[in-house]
Amino acid sequence: MTTGCQHPVAMVHFPNPLPNRDYIMSTAFNISSITPTGARRLWLSLLSVALLGGCSSLYYDTMEKFGYEKRDILVNRVENARDSQNDAQETFRSSLERFQSVVDTPDTELKGRYAEISDAYEDSKSSAEKVRDRIEKVEEVAEDLFEEWEDELDKYESASLRRSSEQQLDETRVQYSQLISRMHAAEERMDPVLQAFQDQVLYLKHNLNAQAIGALENELVEIRQDVDELIRNMEQSVAESEAFIKRFREGG
After folding, report:
1. What confidence tier does 115 reach under pLDDT thresholds 50, 70, 90?
2. Is the Cβ–Cβ distance between 213 and 103 less than 8 Å?
3. How far apart, in whole angstroms, are the C-alpha atoms of residue 99 and residue 40?
4. Has this prediction a pTM greater than 0.85?
5. How many helices and strands in the chain, by DSSP H and E?
6. Could you tell me if 236 and 182 are in contact, meaning their C-beta atoms sit under 8 angstroms apart?
7. Model pLDDT for residues 12-38, shown as the tens digit of each residue
8. Sequence-distant (≥ 6) Cβ neighbours of residue 9 within 8 angstroms
9. Which bin fits 99, alpha (ψ -120 to 50), beta or left (φ > 0)?
10. Rounded distance, CA 36 to CA 126, Å?
11. What is the C-alpha to C-alpha distance for residues 200 and 204, in angstroms, rounded to an integer?
């Protein structure tokens, strides 16, 4: 076991969705406070050796005691990434509408509108950061899953079962590659939209007048095209996520 683990001091309960490694590493509880209210809760004692700096093996071992293998964690994280992209679509749509509303605003109300589009930009940036974080967590557990799967191929006594498992591994890698490519394609499309939003916010910050609004109106056509392209990419990524989740669940 990796060194550096500390003994935490407070009781915890698993949230829904599944807790990630950061949650477990930052949560603490007292082993003596655990009562035998169920077999699964007893395994929370494993968390008393949580690392300050990232015990991946401890996290996985703990989740396995609760019946969650790496494949289950991967599916859960793909679901989280899918949900974050669905949320991002709505955020970017709403932000575009808020930028559009500035075009029809009289000069006397521009200051209030500036604050609104500034908030829209910050909302979009926050949503984008969440998407990136969820994708990173998918990649993290996928890498660990495939490494474990490949290592365990050498443990087979049956050649036929080994071949079958290796074939499943190869197929899953192909499916995952398609999924993560879609996710990154959508992720990359966020950047030009965020940059365009930021440019408009910065420009209006120092030019709260009709001329600035005219400049914004000219830029909005291109921004709308970028947002539409982003949403199309996210819809494709969400569809690929759904297919991946379905294949995993049907595969047992």
Report:
1. confident
2. yes
3. 50
4. no
5. 7, 0
6. yes
7. 334 445 655 555 444 434 433 444 444
8. 28, 29, 30
9. alpha
10. 41
11. 6
